[in-house]
Specification:
single chain, alpha/beta, six-stranded parallel β-sheet, 20 strands, 14% strand
Length: 659
């Protein structure tokens, strides 16, 4: 995924009220963080100290004059008197409250104890206690991915902080707004190899958008404000704040009106797209015969503009793994997912296209395969909010570094003004792709009475009317969930894309359920991924979250087994997850895990019993685990081997065949 857009209308799990105020007349398109500030920071406004011209010939110097500041809110009521000293930990918690935070995922320890004590004094923030810090950071990600609001997790120093690393790397690769707060040993002990000391700022420097070590209690309001601004503006990402214990304990009177000090970052924020570039894109669209849209996670906040663009042009849409839901999978112009395990017709469309419109994507290797062969016949238009992604893997013919939402609005405006004069007609191209859809539909084989895993997901899609929020682990089940559940809207699909972190599904579902009370949340998981964070069943039960777990259990590391079958003569190298001394029994017994946490559970082994079992899962109030036993010989198809091209596409075979 390349960068979610900044100007956004988010689903809100809680009401926020604020306004964006500026001392000068300035269009929302000039600074792409304006709406984020409005949605996420109910207690502060961004004040701009001097004029900023949209047509400035020197955007770096112009942008540097912008000085956002924290400002006391008219509607935020502190539990402290204005000049009353309070602990640094209480200042930290109030700073979170002022940012609109209602839920955190925090696991306590010695170095973060003061923060947890302060949380008990908050009447606004609820802590959802994970059973492992990795569960906490993945839950914060699920919260952010499903709501668009920044997720917040808190951990102690040392092993607590290092347990956040996978989640931070995941958020960095998938551009997820996250603020992680860690306790640290007292300042005087930093660098002495003290008990539970790790230099977490250094450890996470390359996997966070920015991070802070707080050395002055008076900096807390500014640092928290900056952290949320950084996490949510431009290309979103994770920000870490490391707070020594003595800072947490120190008494101080907070100053809530400190200026944000980010001149370099502000100067690099992308500006509104130029009209000439957008006109050029429209001209390329009008000249093309076989255009295709390639959309990614950067379009999650631009779904309405994307749908309008498709309505105006009739161009078919292929989505990345991260972009699923940005355009309805049920629409006749949807080509579903492209890439290694994408549909034949999506990959065919890209291969045969003469114009590739790449919006909010980063030309990831799992999409492109062999770069030289990817869209080799096409002119490429690349729109992305992160300048580092443009030309990094594939050189575009036209590039626009901007918020995709603003660019699409501008393009749509041009298309609407030109109207029928453009005479766009891609009916022959759409017919060609429809023939590919009929010739190569997504399908699967039967294994006697055994349950095809794809069928289980199809039944779930049918029984939930495609409206559930779906989280997954990583592996075969993840790809089948991407292929066979038809996502109708953005933020329905929560998966670890760039990092591919097993154990993501269950805690991400927890975050989604917290952010979206009343929604149907289903974790489609594999037995390997599920066991990696199985302890979070305790959190699900204690919080009474109505999460449904559809466990596709094949007793193997399925995706690795598939590669063993295809490329290693089916030699099993530690990919069997059952008990080798008793292969006829399902091991471990997932129902016992559920029982230990007081969660209802059932197992289904025959296809004819599956529909009723899934319906019972959905009808049961509260959490439920359904253990669906599936054959390990099934393969995820289609498949383009790593580093391959469209001509290398595999559409047949499974583990019952020798290669």
């Amino acid at each position: 995924m390349a960068a979610a857009t900044a100007n956004t209308t988010f689903p809100k799990p809680f009401p926020l009220t604020s306004s964006f105020k500026s001392s000068i007349p300035i269009s929302k398109s000039t600074l792409p963080f304006s709406t984020i500030a409005q949605k996420l920071t109910p207690s502060r406004s961004l004040h701009i100290s001097s004029s900023l011209s949209q047509s400035s010939s020197n955007p770096r110097s112009a942008a540097a004059t912008v000085t956002p500041t924290t400002a006391p809110s008219q509607d935020f009521i502190s539990r402290y008197a204005l000049d009353e000293p309070r602990k640094g930990a209480d200042i930290l918690v109030e700073a979170l409250e002022r940012e609109g935070v209602k839920d955190v995922f925090a696991y306590p320890g010695g170095a973060s104890l003061e923060i947890h004590q302060a949380l008990t004094r908050s009447k606004i923030i609820r802590n959802v206690l994970p059973r492992h810090e990795q569960g906490g950071v993945f839950a914060a990600e699920g919260y952010a991915r499903s709501s668009g609001l920044p997720g917040v997790c808190i951990a102690t120093s040392g092993p607590g902080a290092t347990n956040l690393v996978s989640g931070l790397a995941d958020a960095m690769l998938d551009s997820i707004p996250l603020v992680a707060i860690t306790g640290q040993v007292p300042r005087r002990m930093i660098g002495t190899d003290a008990f539970q000391e790790t230099p977490i700022v250094e450890v996470t420097r390359s996997i966070t958008k920015h991070n802070y070590l707080v050395l002055d209690v008076d900096d807390i309001p500014r640092i928290v404000s900056e952290a949320f601004f950084l996490a949510t503006s431009g290309r979103p990402g994770p920000v870490l704040i490391d707070v020594p214990k003595d800072i947490q304990q120190q008494l101080a009177v907070p100053k809530w009106n400190q200026a944000i000090r980010l001149p370099g970052y502000m100067s690099r924020l992308p500006k509104a797209p130029g009209e000439a570039h957008l006109e050029q894109i429209v001209r390329l669209v009008s000249e093309s015969k076989k255009p295709v849209l390639y959309v990614g996670g950067g379009c999650l906040n631009s779904s309405e503009e994307l749908k309008r663009f498709v309505e105006l042009t009739g161009i078919p849409v292929a989505s990345t793994l991260m972009g699923l839901g940005t355009f309805p999978g049920t629409d006749e112009l949807s080509l579903q997912m492209l890439g290694m395990h994408g549909t034949v017709y999506a990959n065919y469309a890209v291969d045969k296209s003469d114009l590739l419109l790449a919006f909010g994507v980063r030309f990831d290797d799992r999409v492109t395969g062999k770069l030289e062969a990817f869209a080799s016949r096409a002119k490429i238009v690349h729109i992305d909010i992160d300048s580092a992604e443009i030309g990094k893997n594939k050189q575009p013919h036209v590039s626009v570094c901007s918020d995709v939402k603003l660019a699409l609005k501008g393009i749509n405006g041009i298309l609407e003004s030109k109207g029928a004069k453009l005479k766009l007609d891609y009916s022959a191209w759409r017919q060609e792709l429809n023939e590919q859809k009929l010739k190569y539909p997504l399908n699967y084989k039967t294994f006697g009475e055994a349950i095809p895993p794809q069928y289980a997901i199809q039944v779930l899609d049918e029984l939930t009317s495609g409206n559930a929020i779906i989280s997954t682990g990583v592996g075969q089940h993840q790809m089948w969930a991407a292929q066979f559940y038809k996502y109708r809207k953005p933020r329905q699909w929560l998966t670890s894309g760039g990092l591919g972190a097993m154990g993501f599904g269950l805690p991400a579902a927890i975050g989604a359920a917290v952010a979206n009370p009343g929604a149907v949340v289903v974790d489609i998981d594999g037995d390997g991924s599920f066991v990696m964070n199985v302890q979070e069943l305790a959190t699900v039960r204690v919080e009474n979250l109505p999460i449904k777990i559809l466990l596709l259990n094949n007793q193997h590391l399925g995706m690795v087994v598939q590669w063993e079958d295809r490329f290693y003569k089916a030699n099993r190298a530690h990919t069997y997850l059952g008990d080798p001394s008793n292969e006829s029994e399902i091991f471990p017994n997932m129902l016992k895990f559920a029982e230990a946490c007081g969660i209802p559970a059932a197992r289904v082994t025959r296809k004819e019993d599956l529909r009723a079992a899934i319906q019972k899962m959905l009808d049961t109030p509260g959490p439920y685990l359904l253990d669906v036993i599936v054959p390990h010989q099934e393969h995820v198809l289609p498949m383009i081997p790593s580093g391959g091209a469209f001509k290398d596409l595999i559409t047949e075979g499974d583990g019952r065949i020798k290669y």
